Each structure stands twice: as structure tokens, then as C-alpha cells.
Amino acid sequence: MNNTFFCARENGKLHRPRTILTGFGFMASSIAWAIYDPYITKILERLLNASAMVTGWSAKLNEMFPVLAKFAESQGENVVTEAGGITLVPLFIGIIMTFDNIFGVIFQPTFGKLSDRCHSKLGKRRPFIVFGAPVSAFLFAVIPWVALSNSLPLTMLFIILFVFSMSLWRAPCVALMPALTPPSLRSEGNAIINLMGGIGSALGLVAGTLVGAIYTAFTGTKITTENEQVAFPYVFLLGAIVMIIGMLVVLFFVKEPSSKLEAVAEHNKAVDAAARAKAEKEAKKAAKAAQKAQKLSKGERKSLIFMLGGLFFLFCGTNAITTFFALFAAEVLGKTTSEATIMTTLFAACSALAAIPAGYLGKKIGRKKTILLGLVVFMAVFALYVATRSFALIWVALILGGFANMFITVNTLPLVLEIGGLDKVGTFTGYYYTATFSAQIASPIIYGIVRMLSGTYLSLFIYSPIMFLLSILCILFVKHGEAIPEEIVKAAAEEND
User: Fold this and answer.
1) Residue 8 DSSP label
2) What is the pLDDT of residue 454?
3) Rounded distance, CA 51 to CA 160, Å?
4) 83 — pLDDT class (breaks 50, 70, 90)
5) Which residue in 206, 220, 388, 415 is a FRET match for 75, CA 20 to 30 A apart?
6) Mean pLDDT throughout 111-140?
7) Residue 273, CA distances (Å) to 102, 269, 279, 318, 497 in order
8) Global pTM?
9) Residues 419/422/428/433 CA torsion (nearest 10 deg)
10) φ, ψ of residue 221 in degrees (nearest 5)
């Protein structure tokens, strides 16, 4: 088995060390986004506030619609700005911060398909990672240095180039593990990949603290909110270095078949004439099966559509939580941003702890059942808080919600990929991210309207369960995507013998 699947052992079990090595690519991507989101918003805030163009547009808006400033002030917003009222800076930040998701929707399916068709000495997926990661790392490291020039257009150029370069290799990177893992082991493998991504995110979250401590030790100057941007280049540089390390691990330690024909040829050299004839016979059967599977059946197409719909509503619910929780904590709970961060960190920690059990559960009871279990737990704890308004239940919701989140996350991608089959891993990875990125673009707008009409961020704990309920209704119609049990595969193999 391990001649075909790098992440599988001869005995049919998951090869965990090799799967960890495969996850270094996802770790490299995760640290970039963990640094990108909080630090780019601060860079943009400084540059946009200093932009005469943005200030001028804000002034014109206030002149034309003075009622907007009055409305904002009545909602508790601070409207004292250089423009004399509301400012367009948050709007522009929000728009720019959706670029990564928009680029993902546009470009990732394309590069996922290209990786399916790629045949090289490095295999199908690794060429995209080996090229894309260093380019992304370079652009990532340059962004804060360019921002120090106070040129908004030049900084925007490098942000756009970075986001585009990341879209070149993200789908192939995510498709690497499923391509090197038997379908029955993908939930377990995806758990390890998510764990590696969590490590990357954690490194990104502590990068600022680490750089700040080193900077203070060497310069004697303490990092504060007033001078924190002098340390930004070193934070981004640290992230870029980890990205390069992740790429090098994938390049030198992960073995991906260069092509199907080469894999068969390598196998033929290791067996005798009788075994070679058998291998050729199996190869012909596999080729016929692959040709037959080029088009999905009606039932498979239906399952794919409903699964992608379920993913859309799922990510609408989770994105609203991650985006607006700090505002909810300030308005409803009276918590500071740092206190809200501690609460969301608990959610992330519980998700990381649940990664391996989620993969095991997906294998034991099935991916669909595990996903539905996670969604039901999400709905129950959120609805319970709304009904009781108990502060203690917020912690319960975050803890159980963290576990539920990983039960869902670990099993959704393998389920989608199973519908497409081994030859379409890159393509269906692109479909997966099209659904999830579309949700992350739409959800801030949809919930923004809900918040405006409801008048309170408590509606977050009503909006998200409704999205989860819609996701459940979609996933109930999914009838494909479970891994074929190993016992059935072995029995079929014995019959063919």
C-alpha cells in the first residue's frame, strides 16, 4: 500500500510521522494567515487614516448625509474624526480584508484542477508548493517594510500580490494529504493536518510577543501601542522563515508519485513476472474504473451540491462568531478586547484537543454522523445560552463549541473528496474552498444587516444556530462520501485473487 500512498503503512494503518511531514505545508500557510489578519488591519488603519483621499471622501459623505453621523452617535459610536463625522476607514479595511477570500473563490479551483493535471518529477501537488511558498514568503516579508514608506498604493500592491500568490498553492497544499492517503484513512489524516495547521496558527499568535521580547532585550525600548509597528517587519520575517521551512520539509521529506505510469513501473521492477502480469491486469481495471468515474452519477452530484450548501451555511455561522465575538463580548458581556481574546483562545485550544478524536470518530461512526453531531452540539449550547443568558454558559458554549467545531472541520473535506474520487482531489478541494470562502465573504454582510435590524450583538447567538440548522438540513440529503470500510476492500481484493 505504501508504494501508492505515502501516508499509509503496509498494514493498512495511517503512517503518522509521514502525515505530520505532509502537514508542514499547511502549517506554513496557517502561520501566514495567523499573522496577516491582526497585523495587516493595523497597518491599513494607520495608512488609511493618513490618506488625504480617504479623509476627503469621508468628509464628502458626512456633508451629503449628516444623518449617518447622528445615527452612528446614537448607537454609541465615536464620530469624532478628521472628517468631522463618520469615517470610511473601517469600511475600506473590511473590503480589503475580504481580498484573500475573493481570490480564493476565483483562483483556488483553477489551481486545484491544474494540480490534478500536473505530471512532473515532484508529482502533482508539490510543484505548486515549492514555487508558491517562497514567492509568498518573500512578498509577506516585504509588506511591513513597504508600509513604513507610508505609501498606501505601494502597500496595497504588495498585499494584492501576496494574496494572489497564496491562492496559487493553497488548494494543492490541502490536496496533498488526501492524494497520499487511502480514502478510509483520510479523516484520521485530516485530523493531523488540522493539528499542524493549529500549530502554525499558534506560532503566528505568539510571534508578536516573541519578537517584542527580543526587540526589547536588544534595544532596551519597550514595545507599546505607540511604537509597535517598528516590530512588525520582524514578525512578518519570522512568519516568512517558517513558511520556507515548511516548504523545504515538503520538498525533501514528502514523497509524491511523479505519475501513475512511473508508479506502476517502479512497482513492476520489484515483483516477478507473474506478479507483474497481475499488476497489469489490475491497472487495466483501474483505468476502466477511472474512465467510468470521470462523470459523477446523479446521486453523487446531488450529494455534492447539498454538501457544498451545508458547508456554506456552516461557515456563515462560524465566520460570524470569529468576526464579531469581540464586539459581542464588549457590548453584552462588558469584556475588554484582551478578555475576549482569552475566551476565543479557549475555543481554539479545545478545537486543537479534539482534532485526533474527531478523526477517530469519523472513521468509527462515519463522517456524516460525526459532522451532524458537531452541528447539533453547536446549536444546543448556543441556544441554551440565549435562553438563560447565563455568563457561565458562555464558557460551556466555547468549550463544547470548540470540540464540535473540530468534529465538523476534520470530516467535511474528506467527505467532499470521497465524492470526487482520487483522480479529482485537487478539483474537489477547489470546490470545498469555493463554498467556504463564499460564506466568509457573504456572512459579514448578512450578519451586519441582522445586527442593524436587531440592535444587539446578542443576535449573534441566534443567527449562528439558524445557519447551523440550515447546514444540518442540507447535509441530511448527502448520501455519498463515506470511506469504504477496510474489511470490504480486503474482501473484494481476495475475491479478485
Assistant:
1) B
2) 62
3) 19
4) very low
5) 388
6) 86
7) 53, 10, 10, 56, 16
8) 0.64
9) 110
10) -105, 125
Domains of the chain listed by start with CATH number: 16-258 (1.20.1250.20), 300-483 (1.20.1250.20)
d(CA 407, CA 3): 30
Please give the pLDDT value at position 68. Answer: 58
Residue 75 has pLDDT above 50, yes or no: no
Q: Write down the pLDDT at residue 2.
A: 45
Q: In the block, which residue shows the cell 475573493?
A: 102
- Which residue has 444556530 as its cell numbers? 465
What are the Cα distances from residue 64, in Å, to 59, 69, 85, 411? 9, 11, 11, 51
Higher pLDDT, 176 or 69: 176
Contact 402, 350 (CB under 8 A): yes
Closest listed residue to residue 232, CA positions, set 293, 147, 294, 344:
147
pLDDT in tens, 280-309: 565 555 445 544 445 678 888 888 889 899
Query: What is the pLDDT, as a whole number, of residue 144?
Result: 92
CB atoms within 10 A of CB 180: 25
CB 211 within 8 A of CB 234: yes
d(CA 100, CA 97): 7
Grid cell for residue 203? 506560532
3-state secondary structure of 20: helix
Question: How open is the CA angle 234-239-240, to the nearest 5 degrees?
Answer: 95
User: In the chain, what percentage of residues exceed pLDDT 90?
Assistant: 12
Task: List residues bridging with 8 in a β-sheet.
Answer: 14
Burial class (CB in 10 A: 0-12, 13-18, 19+), 91: middle
pLDDT one-digit tens code per residue, 344-371: 667 777 877 887 788 788 878 888 888 8
Could you give the CA distance from residue 461 to residue 388 in angstroms, rounded to a whole number?
12
Give the N- to C-terminal CA distance of the chain in Å, as an integer. 16
Residue in the block written with cell 499488476 = 279
**What distance in Å separates the CA atoms of residue 321 and residue 340, rounded to the nearest whole number?**
12
Mean pLDDT of 397-409: 83
Q: Tell me if 258 sits within 8 A of 121, measured CB to CB.
A: yes
CB 195 within 8 A of CB 348: no
Grid coordinates representing 275 are 506478479
DSSP 116-132: HH---TT-SSHHHHHHH
Rounded to an integer, what distance in angstroms lies between the CA atom of residue 143 and that of residue 162?
A: 9
Output the CA torsion sign for 368, 369, 374, 380: positive
Could you write out the DSSP letters of every residue in 452-486? Answer: HHH-SGGGHHHHHHHHHHHHHHHHTT----PPPPH
φ, ψ for residue 79 (rounded to 5)? -105, 15
